[in-house]
Amino acid sequence: MKNRKISILCLSGIILLSLLLLSSYLGDPPSIHLSNIFRIFLLLACGSLFAFYMKWNDSSPELEPVHIKSDKKENDKKGDNPDRPPVRFKDVAGLEEVKEELVEIIDFINNPEKYYKMGAKIPKGILFYGPPGTGKTLLAQAIAGETNSAFFPASGAEFVEKYVGVGAKRVRTLFEKAKKDAPSVIFIDEIDAIGAKRSTESNNEKDQTLNQLLIEMDGFHSNQTVIVVGATNRLDLLDEALLRPGRFDRHMFIGNPDVRAREEILKVHIRNKPIDGKVDIKTLAKRTHGMSGAHLSNIANEAAILAVRNNKKVIGIEEFNQAIEKVMAGLQRKNAVVMEKEKRIVSYHEAGHALIGKLLNTDFIAKVSIIPRGEALGYVMYAPEEDRYLMTKSELKNKVKVLLGGRAAEEIIFGEISTGARDDLKKANAIVYQMVCEYGMSNLGNRVFESSLVKNCYPMIDQEIKQIIDECYQEAVQHLKNNLDILEEVAKTLYDKETLTGEEFEALIKDSQKKTACSLIT
Questions:
Q1: 135 assigned binding-site residue
Q2: Is 35 exposed, middle or buried (0-12, 13-18, 19+ CB in 10 A)?
Q3: Which CATH class is domain 340-521?
Q4: Which CATH number fits domain 259-329: 1.10.8.60, 1.20.970.10, 3.10.290.10, 1.10.287.620?
Q5: Which is catalytic among the residues 205, 350, 410, 489?
Q6: Coiled-coil region(s) at which residues (predicted)?
Q7: Per residue in 53-68, pLDDT tens?
Q8: Cβ contact 253:130 at 8 Å
Q9: CATH fold of 89-253
Q10: According to the annotation, is 131 in a ligand binding site?
Q11: Do 350 and 406 contact (CB within 8 A), yes or no?
Q12: Is 410 a catalytic residue?
């Protein structure tokens, strides 16, 4: 109806303007007075039409908020409030210590009187920091859900604008809404986008937005139950004024889950899925070492999708194994055509990785494959038997040797190296860089080099990195030369079968060692 009215008005205006232009061509002298009168009439008609259109256009938007308001009232009557998330602590698994710490804040929001009697003040802010995908957003939703508080989610990037004052205005508007609907929880994800450290010379729009955030967090009255929850994976970038008590009173590290936490997280994500009774959740938790809660959720979802694709009624261990490989190594390239020469190089490359890992006893090998996945032409999957929180210098060097084992095998067998070790070299250099600059595990002694000092000391650091990597590479070459028969056997079997499970690899190593021992005796 609205579009039809606009079309009629536009058509009428075009007709009147056409008549006005046509009247300008009336050139008969006797009718000159009539022509002028006709022009004036047309001008008045156009003016009236334009005034009517502007009045109708200004009044029309008032109709829409009435409908929105009535819809909101209907939603409130139904009890369907989108600002109050349904997430509870039972939906958050693997973060028991953090949940125990948050119980006090939740009790404070639900029963503030007993705390006010003791003169206690509600914490104004909670900062969650840690790697991505560990459940920081879910925890913030659970706080609002447990307290039935209004939830106001925002991202740090939403406050960053090139126009002066826009970001600060958005911060004020957000806090005004939260105060109006108290008790409420404000959640600012990626808070480092607006909370980065300020320099002495900067006075840009981002700094003004941060200043407004600091003022708002300081400006709460004692009777306003508003909690600000921030999340970041770059705590080192945040301004000190934002981190001080009185703004973010509590800092909580949310790290990747351990094996027990991974088991609990998997149980949550398979709660509404038909799982085969043969699936062992503890085994899956061990195989997903180092993964975050987001990874585990993705694995459960991918396993369900694979079960549907395979026309199964329950999700079996095969679907979970394929989902883990898909998340860890990437999508399998079934139609990839690999030359026989390249396939042979990849076989020795992956055999070199696996054999060095077995000889140095770094981690349990779950699978060795030369089937392309993602960008890789082959891969070795490891399944650590237990979670590790500390690594010694020798253990880190062994990890570097395993990473360089593939290139070492290529050089021994073919006399030259290929581009297949690109990712291995990046990881090896990253580990050695940390050993030199962060862990003090080099000839430089107990020295730590901040990122700002690396440029000035780079020649000295680079020399130490080169020395450690060269030493590890030569030792990897020597290990493979001492076990050349086993390397040949593993590579040949891998070339023929394309995939070896952990059990098959272990059996192959034992048989090869027996053959080598028998040949030495004879």
A1: yes
A2: middle
A3: mainly alpha
A4: 1.10.8.60
A5: 350
A6: 470-497
A7: 555 444 433 333 333 3
A8: yes
A9: Rossmann fold (3.40.50)
A10: yes
A11: yes
A12: no
